[in-house]
Amino acid sequence: MATYEGTWAYRDRFHETFARTYFRPFGDLAVSSIGVGTYLGDPTDEVDASYRAAIVEALESGINVLDTAINYRHQRSERVVGRAIDESEIDRESVFLATKGGFLPFDGARPDDPGRYVSEEFVAPGIVDRKDLVAGQHCIAPAYIDDQLDRSLDNLGADHLDLYYLHNPETQLRERSREAVYDQLEATFERLERRVEAGDIGAYGVATWDGFRVPAGDPSHLSLPEVLGRAERAAAAVGADAHHFSAVQLPFNVSMADAFTTAAHDGRTALTVASEHDLHVFASASLMQGELAREMPDRVEAELAGETRAQRAINFARSAPAVTSALVGMGSPEHVEENVAAGTFEPMGANAFDAVFE
Hints:
Layout: H1 4-14, E1 23-26, E2 29-32, E3 34-37, H2 45-59, E4 65-67, H3 76-87, E5 96-101, H4 114-123, H5 142-156, E6 163-167, H6 178-198, E7 204-207, H7 224-237, E8 245-251, H8 258-261, H9 270-276, E9 280-284, H10 298-301, H11 309-319, E10 323-329, H12 333-340, H13 350-356
Parallel strand pairs: 3-4, 3-10, 4-5, 5-6, 6-7, 7-8, 8-9, 9-10
Antiparallel strand pairs: 1-2
Helix pairs in contact: 2-3, 2-12, 5-6, 6-7
Organism: Halapricum desulfuricans
Protein name: Aryl-alcohol dehydrogenase related enzyme
InterPro entries: AKR2_Oxidoreductase, NAD(P)_OxRdtase_dom_sf, NADP_OxRdtase_dom
């Protein structure tokens, strides 16, 4: 698990390489404001090898935030992350490790008959109740998330996760009422509070794609204040002094700035609510899957520091209020070198960031 001593020793080792605000607090931990994302790539041994080399390079270059999910690349991404941590010269206590559960994962490769696989692997053993399964691929019921958290620990070769997300819970809205989804979240938050108490995770949160950034009338909308309220109720139900809902993950970049511009949460934006409640925001899609490395609005780019367009795009995401770390896919050591160098430049100040949207 990441520790105060481990992460601050890591920060002390690298901080002179970077600009002043590169390392940021997560509770009493020190975490890099650029993190490694592991979503993209084919489920092949060759991609595994590239990821492993990239993650080792990142850890040994000043990035100590690793983000993955059990379904990424059919569980291969989690397994590669675990191997890379073991191979790196960096101690586990210095690494902030986050993963997600919600989508039913295949195992290493897509099976010939996905429906049969889901039935035999999850439904028949009682891990998933069919009534909790949406679109044949998504479940956030407590028992299922318990199972997935345990599998993630095994995949990662870890005995503790620093942050565990429920993955895209808005997927449930395809077949369930919003109130039913909130009820399900509350029940699963109770289970996650117990996993915190047991020492399996340090904190939990929700990773979304649409949920927190679309307007309140959108079919995919989830209210962040309501989700926080459900976390408070979950903590009270298990007798915890305070809830451990500590973070949200959502897309944030130059072209997808809805979390800063759309007042979808009782008249406030997602980033405003996060700031008010001391939530950590982990920005996904910081480069919009590479598109922003090729093209960016001139007016915005002119305000950003960095030697390359990719670095400037990363620094835009790092500039937003409440953002603790901007996640970037890094599938090779060459990607790491360019991306980590973004942290040698200061992000935009608050006034300059606000001015971009005027």
